[in-house]
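P.,

For your records, the input lines for the assembly:
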Amino acid sequence: MNSQPKEVVYNLEASAFNWDISPGKTIEAWGFNKQIPGPELRAIVGDTLVVRLTNNLQEPTMIHWHGLRIPAAMDGTGAVQKPVAPGEVFEYRFVLPDAGTFWYHSHANETEQLEKGMYGALIVEDTTDPVFDAEKVLMIDDMKLNSDNKFTKPGWFVPRIVERHDGREGDTLLISGKEDSVIGIAAGQTERWRLINASSARYITLYLGGKEFKIIGTDGGLLEHPRTVTSVLITPGERIDIAAGPFEEGETFAMESLPYNRSTFLKAKRQQFATVKVGKQKTSVAFIPETFRTIESLANKDAIITRKVRLSVGPSLKDGMDFLVNGDVHVNDKLVKVGELQIWEVSNTSLMDHPFHLHGFFFQVIEENGKAPEYRAWKDTVNLTPRSTMKIAWMPDNRPGTWMYHCHILEHHAAGMMAEFEVIDGNKPQEELNPVRKHHHN
Ligand code: C2O
Ligand code: CU
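Structure tokens returned:
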């Protein structure tokens, strides 16, 4: 509990700037406050976050607060606000309702703006969070650069089709804006590492040299119980919090991503993102309880489906392939009423993976390919493997307005795999619906 909620104010300036991703390797980045990632925003649950965005880019932008259950007008999409034009200022203001690892990113021309660095972490703490010896926020990204370290779009048909199909992946691997980082940790200590996949399309199977670590949280905050693993998949848009350590003095190991085959043209590889170096022994105050909290179940796996969302791909003469929701691109889906529990069957009939992201609300996966999941978690982004079906449950609380869902592979989103829908207060007349909404493609 936050007994003294306060206002936490940040100024973010979007601009182009030069950024060193490693010594001697400089890119022409776009981002917030001339750094990649943008400033880490941090507050306590219950605080009011105020962000003044000044756009000094040559094109419009907006900020989406990925994972936050805030009013629709603050969601930062073209459906709820006028994009912030060059030279203009827009103030975002909202109460932080949940503790967890969130992030913010541009929601305009995403395939270019995010790729160039327009993202940052938003950490919401709770006074009851478990105690660690230290905490690190690790934003994972990759960039596709040419031999002059420039961002170029594929010009020819075949590479263009490959990038549209696979999403944009590149060989410049970044942890919090830097290549080949060294992550230090004291021997004997346990740290909370908050991992955020900010890449356009890359699937990360986090692997720490075979060492065990504990998953403690997902998109929507802490799990009920820690889960001990040696690897974990983090798809674009997802967050995973882990307890790392304790390790032995002098140990060194790679932070890697194991290959994940998501049926891309480009073959999945095992790749190193950073090196972990264990320093001198220090005493530890970390304590990881066996139970973090209780997550009430919204529905069981047999709950009656209220909506079907089918992700698929279809042929397109111009671009080789279209990315579809219920057979169409850039869809306007049916409205949802406040207080009516949603049970959505989300299916993927294509032969590739898609990370499904719902704006503004947490959901629970209640069934995956006919089976109940092994544990309960709050999610806002979940991966659908090829030819799979999932049932998700979510409750539209009283935040009417225009919301959206989409595939978080940015090229798929841009190519049509997205939908907008209204959440309405059933007691109000329809005229009060959001007037801004027409047909937006971001
Ligand atoms: Cu992080 Cu509409 O996305
Ligand atoms: Cu997709």
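Two observations worth noting. Residues 184 and 277 are 5 Å apart (CA to CA). Residues 157-166 form the longest helix (10 residues).

Regards
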